[in-house]
TrEMBL record:
Membrane-spanning residues: none
Organism for this UniProt entry: Nocardia macrotermitis
InterPro entries: Plipid/glycerol_acylTrfase (IPR002123)
Domain of life: Bacteria
Name of the featured protein: Phospholipid/glycerol acyltransferase domain-containing protein
Domain spans labelled Phospholipid/glycerol acyltransferase: 63-199
SUPFAM superfamilies: Glycerol-3-phosphate (1)-acyltransferase
GO MF: acyltransferase activity
Length: 253
């Protein structure tokens, strides 16, 4: 299927394409390995987290991977951390939600597609009413991918935190609806929280530069194998678990 232009007016064709799109797994592994060498993240785990994560992956459970969002560097440092962590086996089988503007420029889109990107049309960019139908399609596509065995990685805060990098900001309902719809399709998604810290920031509104993003601290919370039944309960759980993971990342920086 030909790659459609990623614009809101074309969202039906966009999500038809990403329903079945498959990244080249070996290329993804190579790209993630290069990013790991470039950014050299430090990865830690809560007690027992590594073992639970390994068990979930061996059972081929789809993972709902949530990460706090601090800067435009995050997709690259998170990819680097995935390579250096227990998530390496699911590289190439994980879809990553990314804002639609990253899919506009052709070379960047090829890289984002190769890394498993699925476009998100955000209300803050296009207006809440305008993106409602596209948002529902995106959630359905994510649920279908999870029911097919893929994992989903998401920054559930929805935008970069320029308030306090040590505190998870408001978590949108989308993450809860993805889990809820995936479960309705028969999937058993497990929650994996990954906290990220670039260290103390004199001004949280100023994002770290590429050099400052090197050696970021990542910390895995203990995965949650069974999720609540209601989307709002999932969203509350995500914020609680992600804050604990972020606390670990901050403490280990």
């Amino acid at each position: 299927m030909e790659r459609p232009e990623v614009v809101l007016e074309n969202s039906d064709a966009v999500y038809d394409f990403y329903r079945g799109h498959r990244q080249h797994r070996l290329q993804a592994w190579g790209a993630y390995a290069v990013l790991a060498r470039r950014f050299r993240p430090r990865v830690g785990y809560a007690a027992g987290a590594r073992e639970v994560l390994r068990g979930l992956i061996s059972e081929r459970r789809p993972l709902l991977i949530v990460i706090n969002h601090l800067s435009q560097q995050d997709p690259y440092t998170v990819a680097a951390a995935a390579w250096r962590s227990g998530l390496r086996p699911v590289i190439g089988r994980t879809r990553v939600l990314a804002k639609d503007e990253l899919f506009v420029e052709a070379d960047l889109r090829r890289r984002i597609d190769m890394m498993g990107g699925i476009p998100v049309f955000r209300g803050k960019d296009h207006g809440l009413r305008a993106v409602n139908a596209a948002g529902q399609r995106m959630i359905d596509i994510c649920a279908e991918r999870m029911a097919g065995g893929d994992s989903i990685a998401i920054f559930p805060e929805g935008t970069c935190n320029d308030v306090d990098p040590t505190q998870v900001q408001s978590v949108g309902s989308g993450v809860g609806h993805i889990a809820f719809r995936a479960m309705k399709l028969g999937a058993r998604p497990a929650l994996v929280s990954l906290g990220l810290s670039y260290g103390p920031r004199a001004d949280p509104a100023v994002e770290p530069t590429k050099p400052e993003a090197i050696s970021a601290s990542f910390h895995f919370g203990v995965p949650v194998p069974e999720l609540p039944a209601r989307p709002a309960e999932v969203a509350r759980l995500v914020r609680t678990e992600l804050q604990q993971a972020l606390d670990g990342a901050v403490a280990a920086y």
